[in-house]
Prior knowledge:
Elements: H1 7-16, E1 20-25, E2 30-33, H2 35-41, H3 58-61, H4 64-70, E3 72-80, E4 97-107, E5 110-117, H5 119-122, H6 130-139, E6 143-148, E7 153-156, H7 158-163, H8 169-173, H9 182-195, E8 197-206, E9 212-223, E10 229-238, H10 240-262, E11 266-270, E12 276-279, H11 281-286, H12 292-296, H13 307-318, E13 320-329, E14 335-346, E15 352-361, H14 363-385, E16 389-394, E17 399-402, H15 404-410, H16 414-417, H17 422-425, H18 433-444, E18 448-453, E19 461-468, E20 472-479, H19 481-495
Amino acid sequence: MKVKLTYDNFKEIFDKSPMGILFYSKEGRLIDANPSALKITGTSSLKDCAKLNLFNKSYVASKKEELLKKGLIKFQTPLNFQNSGGDSHDILKKPKTIFIEWNIAAINAGYLVQIQDITASKNEEPLKSEDKYKRWFEDDLTGDFIATTCGQIIDCNPAFAEIYGFDNCEKAVESNICDFNRDDWINLITSLKIEYKIYDHQSWHKRPDGIQIHVVANVIGIFDDSDELVQVKGYVFDDTKRKQAEESLKESEEKYRLLFDEDLTGDFIATPEGEILECNPSFAEIYGFDDCNMALEWNILESNPFDWPYMVTRLKKEHKILGYQSWQRRSDGMRIHVVANVVGIFNDLNELIQVKGYVFDDTERKNAEENLINSKRQITEILDSIQDNFIALNYYWNFIYVNKCAAEYFGVDADDLIGQNLWERFPELVKTRCEETFRRTMETNKIQHFEAPSMYGTGEWFDFSVYPSAEGISIYWRDITERKKLKKDKNTLKIK
Length: 496
């Protein structure tokens, strides 16, 4: 049998419910609230909060989108009556903070809100396991503490008191950790509000007795339901001896760092994948960076995607490479030629873990070399294209260049003559006008011209021009047989 509830039934349930019930319009304006809601929020009458809007409070407004999407939201938040404003339900200025559990549902007429005071359950202490954790806390060799965000020590263990030079925990609790290093504590609190927990935080602290200590700390933020940082839980240990040894080592390394930084060679250390781990200013300059920090964000693989993997492969076998040359691209796209000595750094398993290198910019010399090669190539092409004979000899009478026509005249490949001695290769030229004139040009450094028959006795005649050069002499000769024949025939006709 179904029981039909009347308006009076609903009104009775509404008024007598121990849970606070509030009705809001679709715009968020308060329409009605039961006595429990007024009591929980500290409001004397509905009239006092009639103008309040559900979404004026930030912790509700931030969840509005979720409410409209899901139709129901549930959360907990504190209400501080001393700091209450005109946009909340806590308009009665009670001198305390209570914790409220909210259930907000979207209904056809607007919003149904149920609130419940859960302050009592929030304040209950987990007493059953307290003794066990207290023993761990006190026996821990790490200095454990709990402090306010202002640095006031709330609790600590004996190890913490000993680290900071206190005779016991009672005296330590009377201190403020902010006094050990004020700027460090302020920065730590700022970071905790963002990161929630911080590991391996290192800093120098000054104990109350004036002794400087270096501590390493892991700290965790304790937040309330409004995500406000209220306490700091930390674990510290005295790292002074290790830090002092580290700084002594650092001092001895400074002189080597100075040599490293002032070296005109580009020095670097990189991973096998090309990530720059360390470099000096010369390296940064060679690759077009303003400073070393910019170079450390770069990957040397970008300078030549094919060259670096090849070099790493060689290093795994050879362990070091000297005088390695390659064309690379700087960070700004400029093409440079570098010469490098690289050494592999290997672990105990003989695996390459780092590459140490020393590079210098060889672009200017390489460009000059290539320009010379191109110039010689152009001259070679020009000389090979002419239809007359041309050779070049150095001061030792060795062939340094033979063009195509000259090679055909000698009946050999041009490359077969390069480096050979003229008089040894062609002894038939010795004690001829050719030898006489060639030597005169070499000795006097003056241009010589003459005509001579072929050294092969074929009846051909050639017109020779011999020029001095920076390396020796150059000899150019062309066939004048037809001209000689015409001249002879002309002379014969004159006689007749």
